[in-house]
Amino acid sequence: MSETANTANTASTANEAAAEPAEVQAPGRDASGEPGSWGARLRDAAVERWRPIALAALLLAACYAPFQLVPFRVFQLTMVLVYAVALLGLNLLVGHAGQISLGHGAFFAVGAYAAALMLDRWDVPYLLTLPVAAAVAFVLGLGLGVPAVRLHGLYLALVTLSIAVFLVPLLKRFESVTGGSMGLTLTKPAPPAWTGLAEDQWLYFLALAVAVAAFLLARNLLRSRVGRALHAVRDNEAAAEVMGVRLPFYKTLAFAWSAMFAGAAGCVYTWVIGFVSPDSFPVTLSITLLAGIVVGGLGSLSGPLLGGLFVMFVPSWSQDINKAAPGVIFGLLIIAVMYVAPTGLAGLAGRAAGRIRRTLRRE
Amino acid sequence: MSTPDDDFLVVEDLHAGYGGARVLHGVSLTVGRGEVCAILGPNGAGKTTLLRALCGMVKGRGAVRLGGTGLLGRPPDAVARLGVAHVPEGRGTFLPLTVEENLRLGAFTRRDRAAVQADLERVHGYFPVLRKRLKQQAGSLSGGEQQMLALGRALMLRPRLLLLDEPSLGLAPMVTRELFGIVRSINEEERTTVVVVEQNAHLALGIARQAHVLETGRIVLSGPAERIRADEQVARSYLGYRV
Amino acid sequence: MAGFAQQVVEGMGAGAIYAGLALALVLIHRFTGIVNFAQGELAMFSTYVAWQFMDAGLPFWAALAITLTVSFTGGMLIERVVIRPVEGAPELTMVIVTVGLFIFVNAAAGWIWSFLIKDFPNPFPDGALRAGGVAVGYPTLGILAVVGLVMGLLYLLFRHTGIGLGMRAVAADPDSARLVGIRVGRTLALGWGLAATVGAVSGVLVAPLLFLEPNMMGGVLIYAFAAATLGGFDSPAGAVVGGLVVGVAETLAGAYVDVVGSDLKIGVPLVIILVVLLLRPQGLFGRATVERA
């Protein structure tokens, strides 16, 4: 978990650095000590130096945590990681490619059901279910990506939303395969004896491993040609096309990858919960995921993790006040984030950290 | 000796621009009531920006007063309600609506129904071609007809001040001459004050009393239209045509 | 054959409801280019307001009148408070903001009125009009009549009043609208108010058929989207025709296509949306829009 947080931080700083040359060109910006000035360069240097240390510390904390917490808390952290992986996918699509999906819960469900079926029907070793579930979601994403390429913003939102709505009755209908409304109950992966871990701890480490791998994969994706192409698409579609970015190709690909991450998250979900049913994946899941990534921070790598924490803990804390409280908080925060901080919690954290570093340097 | 009529429209030290780009650097001029004033100058001199600042489409610093009322800082709809009709670049026609609806929209702020009906007749008088096309979509009109519609729509406000931005743009010379002829008769018959921005200096000077030459956001020359027209030096250096 | 006609009639009854919500969606889209994902939830909230007044003892029609007024004001307020600050923002931002509004309104209704279902009285009498083996329920007739009435009133407003002309001018070209003295902000708020009112009508019509609960409009919204997509997002008449078509298609598919049955009917709007968007994105009655950069 901490590992991921750190990767994310460094990556978001890298984003800032990438944005700076453009800012330098704006006259009158240099003197202010804002990005693009000496201060920013110093700051980046500082981050560069501290990054490995902070990263190691956080990873250590993440590995230490399950031995200090009660099983329920460990379970909650596991779910944070699961959501973070799904949000990572949604972030690729919304934050980096500028597309929207109101139906990412559907890909999550597809991954979850794919894993459940493999475990239930064919006793596939559970580690093997992960690549297969991810691949299934990837292919479905690719299939949906083809029409999605031709759809603009809100139409894409319409289609993805109706897919999410359609999924629940669809799963219920094919009862012979999906177990219908009753769902499928599975045995959770048992910890190998040599680890000496309890079940909740083992599941936590599985999720942690998947999350770390997913974050590394996403980071590499975004640093590649593909990542640059996606940003170009997001920032100015027409210009990107003129510059020779093959739009349909990259948009479809973004959709497929994004689905793949959600599918992988769904697979880990099945491991952790040991039960899938149509009502585990209602439309609200899709909408909650969108809320999570918007509040966590669109376009930054730490956004998915913060979003995961948010999606997991805000409901569990606020539900004591009222069953509707999480929705009220989500709704208000989404709107507020769009007004004041389109980069979400991650952006706020980045700005706050920058300010603190500047303050410290002055002393 | 200046009378209130001489200072009907007063612009003092007007600065304006878009975002970081400053376009006008302290423009001052006055237009008397019932006069036609021509703003001339090369492309990019700030002519359009000047009109936009007058009608509130662009924020400006300095002072703009119409009959003693300050215009700066008011949004375009408020300026329109003070009786300023602006025929913008590109004519601002509501293309999906019919010709008649476009004309009625010109009188949107007026509540005197009977007078509006009379004005509709008056506009038809100036532009007989519009009468034939009342139920037609404005988007189906030719360029010249659309410019007439735009002017007609502006007249429906019974404007105290009429701002015209490049009325000749994209029109055939004959149509342009006809249009300027109509502007002249509107001015003469109704004593409407007109500020016209025009590339075609020859035409604009033909109907204007005063003229100002704008270059890179400053007025470089002002004077009676007759004198500016006669000044060959001016014609060559600023207006880009030979007399 | 009578059975088929019966299905068509019932489909039209359902379709009229979708048409109502689709009308609300189209109204806002025409003025602002926004598709309001919260439209269904606003309608649901309005329906609760109506329920609240009836619960306090008011007769149905009085409660309806108050509800429509409240909805109109509420819609204008939402435009001012929620939408105005992000006016002109990218489409993605707009979609996300209205989704945020969706979540908020849904939860707020649950908070105020709980998630338990409530009975909502049907304003129309039971029974049916029989003709040639087809029975048309009075509630269905009532719904058709109400949606027809709303449509007619909107037509009068847009075609024969100054306010309506101003609204159409704003929809056509906000900048030019300002130049002729129209208060564009106020007009946009008016559009939202109007849409909320029309949505409220659809909510009140739906509630007796489903049950009143916070998630009542979720499914209806998808059908309304399909209706608006089919008719064209900038055509009020298209929304109504689209709604009727979607309603009939849904009912017929449920009755005659075995794979669809009653449980997978929600797939029908999905298919309609996809097919329309891929074949004729502007819808049946919409104008092809020019891409704005």
CATH-assigned fold name of chain B: Rossmann fold
Low-pLDDT stretches of chain A are 1-36
From the N-terminal CA to the C-terminal CA of chain A, the straight-line distance is 33 Å
Summarize the amount of helix of chain A as a percent range: over 70%
pLDDT averaged residue by residue of chain B:
85
Q: What is the alpha-carbon Rg of chain A in Å?
A: 21 Å
Shape of chain B: globular
The CATH homologous superfamily of chain B is named: P-loop containing nucleotide triphosphate hydrolases
Strand order of the largest sheet of chain B: 6-7-8-3-9-10
Helix content of chain B: 25-40%
Average pLDDT figure of chain A: 73
Determine Rg of chain B (CA atoms, Å). 17 Å
Q: Please count the beta strands of chain B (DSSP E, at least 2 residues each).
A: 10
Protein name (chain B): Amino acid/amide ABC transporter ATP-binding protein 2, HAAT family
Organism (chain B): Thermomonospora echinospora
Keywords (chain B): Amino-acid transport, ATP-binding, Nucleotide-binding, Transport
GO molecular function (chain B): ATP binding; ATP hydrolysis activity; branched-chain amino acid transmembrane transporter activity
Q: Could you characterize the architecture of this molecule?
A:
Chain C: This is Amino acid/amide ABC transporter membrane protein 1, HAAT family. Chain C: One of its GO terms (molecular function) is transmembrane transporter activity. Chain C: Its main location: membrane. The complex is a heterotrimer of chains A (363), B (243) and C (293). Chain A is mainly α. Chain A has one domain. Chain A contains 15 helices and 2 strands. Chain B is of the alpha/beta class and 243 residues long. In chain B, the strands form 2 sheets. A 6-stranded mixed β-sheet of chain B has the order 6-7-8-3-9-10, with helices on both faces. A 4-stranded antiparallel β-sheet of chain B has the order 2-1-4-5, with helices on one face. In chain B, helix 3 packs parallel to helix 6 (143-155). Chain C has one domain (2-216). Chain C has helices at 2-32, 39-55, 60-83, 91-113, 138-160, 162-172, 174-179, 184-206, 217-231, 236-256, 267-279, and strands spanning 128-131, 134-137. Chain C has a two-stranded antiparallel ribbon with strand order 1-2. Chains in contact: A-C, B-C. The interface between A and C is large, with 45 and 47 residues.
